[in-house]
Amino acid sequence: MKIQDKYGALREVYGITWRSGKTFFYTLEKDGGGFIFIQESSVNIVDNTIPFRTIYCDGSILHWALVENNLKESLQETNPEARKIFRSILEQEGCVYPDFE
User: Cα separations (Å) of 18 from 4, 45, 78, 88?
Assistant: First the structure.
C-alpha cells in the first residue's frame, strides 16, 4: 500500500491501526528512522493494494514479519538492526522500494 503525505512524499505502508475512531498508517521514517504513524485524513492513498501477507494483532493489521520476528517495537524505537532485518525480509518478498534505506 502506498500513500502520499501532506508534503508530497510517497510512503509505503507496513501496517494499519485504529485509535479513538481514527485510522493510522505505519510507515518508516526516511533516512533510517523508525516507524511513524500518519493519520488517514492527512494523506492521499496512491495504491490500496497490500503486496505482502498480513497478521491482525492487538487491533492492528501488520506486515507478518513485524509480528512473527518481533520487529514492531524495535522499529518504533528506531533500532537500526531491526530495520536491516526488515529490509532483508522485504527484499526476499520483492517489496523493497527505491527510497527504502
Answer: 19, 17, 22, 28
- Which pLDDT band, with edges at 50, 70 and 90, does 100 fall under? low
Q: What is the mean pLDDT of residues 25-48?
A: 89
The model's pTM is 0.86
Q: How far apart are CA 60 and CA 38, in angstroms?
A: 14
Across the chain, the runs of DSSP E, i.e. the strands, are: 2-4, 10-12, 15-19, 22-28, 35-39, 44-47, 54-57, 60-63
